[in-house]
Specification:
The protein contains nine helices and four strands; from the N terminus they run βαβαββααααααα. It is of the alpha+beta class. The chain has two domains: 73 residues, Glutaredoxin (3-Layer(aba) Sandwich); 136 residues, Up-down Bundle (Glutathione S-transferase Yfyf (Class Pi), Chain A, domain 2).
Length: 221
Protein backbone atom coordinates (compact mmCIF):
# COMPACT_ATOMS: atom_id res chain seq x y z
CA UNK A 1 0.00 0.00 0.00
CA UNK A 2 1.10 3.55 -0.69
CA UNK A 3 2.43 5.36 2.39
CA UNK A 4 2.01 9.13 2.64
CA UNK A 5 4.35 10.96 5.00
CA UNK A 6 2.58 14.14 6.01
CA UNK A 7 1.85 16.64 8.75
CA UNK A 8 -1.64 18.08 9.33
CA UNK A 9 -0.57 21.75 9.27
CA UNK A 10 0.97 21.61 5.79
CA UNK A 11 -1.02 22.84 2.79
CA UNK A 12 1.45 20.98 0.53
CA UNK A 13 0.42 17.77 2.27
CA UNK A 14 -3.22 18.79 1.82
CA UNK A 15 -2.51 19.09 -1.91
CA UNK A 16 -1.39 15.46 -2.13
CA UNK A 17 -3.98 14.15 0.30
CA UNK A 18 -6.71 15.84 -1.71
CA UNK A 19 -5.47 14.18 -4.90
CA UNK A 20 -5.40 10.76 -3.23
CA UNK A 21 -8.95 11.18 -1.96
CA UNK A 22 -10.23 12.65 -5.22
CA UNK A 23 -8.89 9.66 -7.12
CA UNK A 24 -10.03 7.14 -4.51
CA UNK A 25 -6.51 5.75 -3.98
CA UNK A 26 -5.98 3.67 -0.87
CA UNK A 27 -3.10 4.89 1.27
CA UNK A 28 -1.73 4.87 4.77
CA UNK A 29 -0.76 8.21 6.27
CA UNK A 30 2.15 8.49 8.69
CA UNK A 31 3.75 11.46 10.37
CA UNK A 32 7.53 11.78 9.91
CA UNK A 33 9.51 9.77 12.43
CA UNK A 34 9.80 11.83 15.59
CA UNK A 35 7.01 14.15 14.45
CA UNK A 36 9.29 16.32 12.32
CA UNK A 37 10.78 16.20 8.84
CA UNK A 38 14.03 17.48 10.36
CA UNK A 39 14.80 14.32 12.32
CA UNK A 40 17.66 12.05 11.32
CA UNK A 41 15.35 9.02 11.34
CA UNK A 42 13.00 10.60 8.82
CA UNK A 43 15.81 11.83 6.60
CA UNK A 44 17.16 8.30 6.43
CA UNK A 45 13.93 7.43 4.64
CA UNK A 46 13.39 10.68 2.73
CA UNK A 47 16.81 12.06 1.88
CA UNK A 48 15.34 15.40 0.76
CA UNK A 49 14.10 15.89 4.31
CA UNK A 50 10.77 17.33 3.21
CA UNK A 51 7.06 16.62 3.37
CA UNK A 52 4.95 15.36 1.79
CA UNK A 53 6.57 12.22 0.48
CA UNK A 54 5.16 8.91 -0.70
CA UNK A 55 6.63 5.43 -0.44
CA UNK A 56 5.79 2.36 -2.48
CA UNK A 57 7.91 -0.56 -1.33
CA UNK A 58 11.51 0.63 -1.62
CA UNK A 59 10.58 3.51 -3.96
CA UNK A 60 10.30 7.02 -2.55
CA UNK A 61 9.10 10.30 -4.09
CA UNK A 62 9.14 13.74 -2.53
CA UNK A 63 7.81 17.17 -3.68
CA UNK A 64 4.06 17.70 -3.67
CA UNK A 65 3.71 18.60 -7.34
CA UNK A 66 5.86 15.71 -8.52
CA UNK A 67 3.70 13.39 -6.41
CA UNK A 68 0.47 14.79 -7.87
CA UNK A 69 1.77 14.34 -11.42
CA UNK A 70 2.86 10.78 -10.66
CA UNK A 71 -0.58 9.96 -9.26
CA UNK A 72 -2.16 11.52 -12.33
CA UNK A 73 -0.10 9.33 -14.64
CA UNK A 74 -0.67 6.15 -12.67
CA UNK A 75 -4.36 6.77 -11.91
CA UNK A 76 -5.61 9.01 -14.73
CA UNK A 77 -9.33 8.66 -13.99
CA UNK A 78 -10.68 10.89 -12.59
CA UNK A 79 -8.21 13.53 -13.67
CA UNK A 80 -7.12 16.30 -11.33
CA UNK A 81 -6.87 18.61 -14.36
CA UNK A 82 -9.29 19.83 -17.00
CA UNK A 83 -9.57 17.92 -20.28
CA UNK A 84 -9.02 21.15 -22.23
CA UNK A 85 -5.28 21.77 -22.86
CA UNK A 86 -5.49 25.53 -22.30
CA UNK A 87 -7.53 25.18 -19.13
CA UNK A 88 -5.18 22.47 -17.92
CA UNK A 89 -2.17 24.75 -18.48
CA UNK A 90 -3.92 27.58 -16.63
CA UNK A 91 -4.68 25.29 -13.69
CA UNK A 92 -1.06 24.15 -13.48
CA UNK A 93 0.12 27.77 -13.60
CA UNK A 94 -2.33 28.60 -10.82
CA UNK A 95 -1.00 25.80 -8.59
CA UNK A 96 2.53 27.02 -9.25
CA UNK A 97 1.42 30.51 -8.17
CA UNK A 98 0.24 29.00 -4.89
CA UNK A 99 3.48 27.12 -4.32
CA UNK A 100 5.90 29.90 -5.29
CA UNK A 101 4.02 33.08 -4.36
CA UNK A 102 1.10 32.71 -1.97
CA UNK A 103 2.32 29.96 0.36
CA UNK A 104 5.70 31.69 1.01
CA UNK A 105 3.83 34.91 1.83
CA UNK A 106 1.74 33.07 4.43
CA UNK A 107 4.78 31.24 5.77
CA UNK A 108 6.51 34.58 6.43
CA UNK A 109 3.93 35.20 9.15
CA UNK A 110 4.83 32.05 11.10
CA UNK A 111 8.03 33.20 12.88
CA UNK A 112 6.30 36.44 13.95
CA UNK A 113 3.84 34.52 16.14
CA UNK A 114 6.50 33.64 18.70
CA UNK A 115 8.11 37.08 18.88
CA UNK A 116 7.29 39.29 21.88
CA UNK A 117 5.15 42.37 21.32
CA UNK A 118 7.18 45.34 20.13
CA UNK A 119 7.07 48.12 17.57
CA UNK A 120 9.51 46.15 15.39
CA UNK A 121 7.27 43.08 15.48
CA UNK A 122 4.26 45.17 14.54
CA UNK A 123 6.16 46.67 11.64
CA UNK A 124 7.18 43.22 10.41
CA UNK A 125 3.59 41.97 10.72
CA UNK A 126 2.36 44.88 8.61
CA UNK A 127 5.02 44.23 5.98
CA UNK A 128 4.10 40.53 5.79
CA UNK A 129 0.40 41.39 5.75
CA UNK A 130 0.87 43.83 2.86
CA UNK A 131 2.81 41.21 0.92
CA UNK A 132 0.09 38.64 1.51
CA UNK A 133 -2.60 41.05 0.35
CA UNK A 134 -0.58 41.83 -2.77
CA UNK A 135 -0.38 38.11 -3.59
CA UNK A 136 -4.13 37.73 -3.01
CA UNK A 137 -4.86 40.83 -5.10
CA UNK A 138 -2.88 39.37 -7.98
CA UNK A 139 -4.62 36.04 -7.50
CA UNK A 140 -7.94 37.83 -7.80
CA UNK A 141 -6.91 38.95 -11.30
CA UNK A 142 -5.76 35.48 -12.32
CA UNK A 143 -8.58 33.18 -11.30
CA UNK A 144 -11.72 32.44 -13.25
CA UNK A 145 -14.76 34.56 -12.53
CA UNK A 146 -16.95 31.51 -12.02
CA UNK A 147 -15.29 28.79 -9.91
CA UNK A 148 -14.70 25.85 -9.95
CA UNK A 149 -11.51 26.87 -11.74
CA UNK A 150 -12.14 26.73 -15.49
CA UNK A 151 -13.59 23.25 -15.42
CA UNK A 152 -16.65 21.08 -14.82
CA UNK A 153 -15.05 19.35 -11.85
CA UNK A 154 -12.54 20.03 -9.09
CA UNK A 155 -8.89 20.50 -9.92
CA UNK A 156 -5.83 20.64 -7.66
CA UNK A 157 -6.06 24.43 -7.32
CA UNK A 158 -9.51 24.16 -5.75
CA UNK A 159 -8.27 22.21 -2.74
CA UNK A 160 -4.74 23.61 -2.28
CA UNK A 161 -5.58 27.32 -1.95
CA UNK A 162 -8.22 27.25 0.84
CA UNK A 163 -5.96 25.72 3.54
CA UNK A 164 -3.24 28.27 2.80
CA UNK A 165 -5.58 31.25 2.67
CA UNK A 166 -7.27 30.29 5.94
CA UNK A 167 -3.88 29.70 7.53
CA UNK A 168 -2.88 33.27 6.73
CA UNK A 169 -6.17 34.72 7.98
CA UNK A 170 -6.08 32.67 11.20
CA UNK A 171 -2.49 33.62 12.01
CA UNK A 172 -3.20 37.29 11.37
CA UNK A 173 -6.29 37.17 13.58
CA UNK A 174 -4.26 35.53 16.33
CA UNK A 175 -1.84 38.47 16.16
CA UNK A 176 -4.65 41.03 16.29
CA UNK A 177 -4.90 41.78 12.57
CA UNK A 178 -7.49 41.19 9.89
CA UNK A 179 -7.37 41.06 6.12
CA UNK A 180 -10.30 41.45 3.73
CA UNK A 181 -10.16 39.05 0.82
CA UNK A 182 -10.61 40.39 -2.71
CA UNK A 183 -14.14 39.70 -3.99
CA UNK A 184 -13.31 37.03 -6.55
CA UNK A 185 -10.99 35.18 -4.20
CA UNK A 186 -13.63 35.22 -1.48
CA UNK A 187 -16.28 33.89 -3.87
CA UNK A 188 -13.94 31.12 -5.04
CA UNK A 189 -13.17 30.20 -1.43
CA UNK A 190 -16.86 29.97 -0.56
CA UNK A 191 -17.64 27.85 -3.62
CA UNK A 192 -14.68 25.54 -3.07
CA UNK A 193 -15.53 25.01 0.59
CA UNK A 194 -18.86 23.49 -0.42
CA UNK A 195 -16.93 20.50 -1.78
CA UNK A 196 -16.33 17.75 0.84
CA UNK A 197 -12.67 17.19 -0.08
CA UNK A 198 -11.89 20.90 0.16
CA UNK A 199 -13.79 21.35 3.41
CA UNK A 200 -12.03 18.37 4.97
CA UNK A 201 -8.52 19.44 3.96
CA UNK A 202 -9.00 23.07 4.94
CA UNK A 203 -10.52 22.01 8.25
CA UNK A 204 -7.65 19.67 9.02
CA UNK A 205 -5.04 22.34 8.37
CA UNK A 206 -6.97 24.98 10.30
CA UNK A 207 -7.36 22.66 13.27
CA UNK A 208 -3.63 21.94 13.37
CA UNK A 209 -2.77 25.64 13.07
CA UNK A 210 -5.24 26.53 15.82
CA UNK A 211 -3.65 23.95 18.11
CA UNK A 212 -0.19 25.34 17.35
CA UNK A 213 -1.33 28.91 18.01
CA UNK A 214 -3.00 27.95 21.30
CA UNK A 215 0.08 26.09 22.46
CA UNK A 216 2.04 29.25 21.78
CA UNK A 217 -0.28 31.18 24.05
CA UNK A 218 0.10 28.64 26.82
CA UNK A 219 3.88 28.77 26.67
CA UNK A 220 4.20 32.56 26.65
CA UNK A 221 1.55 33.52 29.25
Amino acid sequence: MLILYALPQSSFCAKVRGALQFKGIEYEEQEPHGGSYQTTDYQRIVAAGSIPAIQLGDWMLYDSQAIVEYLEEMYPDPSVWSEDPQQRAEQRALVNYHDSKLEPAVRSLVPLVRQPDSSDREQHINIAKDQLFDRLFRLDKIIASDPIQNAKQLCVADWVFPPTIYMGLDILEHMGHSLKLPNRVERWLQNSMQQPIVEAEAGRVRGAIAQWLNQGIERTN
